[in-house]
Write a structure and sequence with these properties.
By secondary structure, the chain is α+β, with helices and mostly antiparallel strands. The chain folds into 3 domains: 60 residues, no CATH class; 74 residues, no CATH class; 53 residues. Helices cover 40% and strands 20% of the residues. The chain contains 7 helices and 9 strands; from the N terminus they run E-E-E-H-E-H-E-E-E-E-H-E-H-H-H-H. The strands form 4 sheets. A 3-stranded antiparallel beta sheet has the order 7-8-9.
Length: 197
């Protein structure tokens, strides 16, 4: 089983560059037996509400309650379910009550046609990765990631790997190999100096 420990880089396969937390990346990793040791972005894993804090879900009414105690009057789904992507459920509040609310500042804009609170619903792919993040295996491997990140940072900042010298994947691959070689030679020299001192 392969592992990928990087967090903010891109996965390259046949010229396809994709960001770690996208469903396409997670599905590619699952199909090719790759375990991604990278946490999902908090907005992906926890959802992101567009309104101010203090909104609570009322399970009896199956809707959200605003900080002033008003319940949403309706809800609507944005995006499509079961297409491999997260979708959003928007909860709509009565703008007449919002306009007269003493807590409206920072929550309701005067003259707005509607007031919504959006909740992101995780796709099955993201849900699986979030569950994997909770395993002891993931936590142990994630602890080791700082060593790789520190070396990647050195290669990018001190040795020019942050910018391609030439165009094309083959040229970038060569630049990566030579940069890694230079970093390893530096380390060998440092270790030899420590042994002789």
């Amino acid at each position: 089983m392969k592992e990928i420990l990087r967090t903010h880089d891109t996965l390259s396969s046949g010229g396809l560059h994709i960001v770690w937390h996208r469903c396409v990346t997670l599905e590619y990793a699952r199909e090719n037996g790759i375990k991604l040791i990278s946490k999902l972005h908090p907005i992906v894993s926890n959802g992101a509400g567009t309104a101010v804090g203090g909104f609570e879900f009322n399970k009896d009414a199956d809707t959200f309650r605003c900080p002033a105690g008003q319940l949403a009057v309706r809800k609507a789904q944005k995006g499509r379910k079961n297409v491999g992507r997260n979708h959003v459920v928007a909860y709509y509040f009565d703008v007449g009550k919002c306009a007269a609310c003493p807590l409206r500042e920072g929550c309701y804009r005067d003259g707005a046609k509607f007031k919504t609170y959006n909740v992101t619903i995780l796709s099955e792919t993201h849900r699986e990765q979030k569950e994997f993040q909770e395993t002891p295996y993931f936590r142990e491997r994630a602890r080791q990631r700082y060593m790789i990140e520190a070396k990647n940072a050195e290669m990018k900042q001190a040795h020019g790997l942050g910018k391609a010298d030439s165009s094309g994947l083959a040229a970038m691959r060569l630049q990566s190999y030579f940069t890694a070689f230079a970093v390893n030679v530096k380390r060998i020299v440092r270790l030899l100096e420590l042994q002789t001192a």
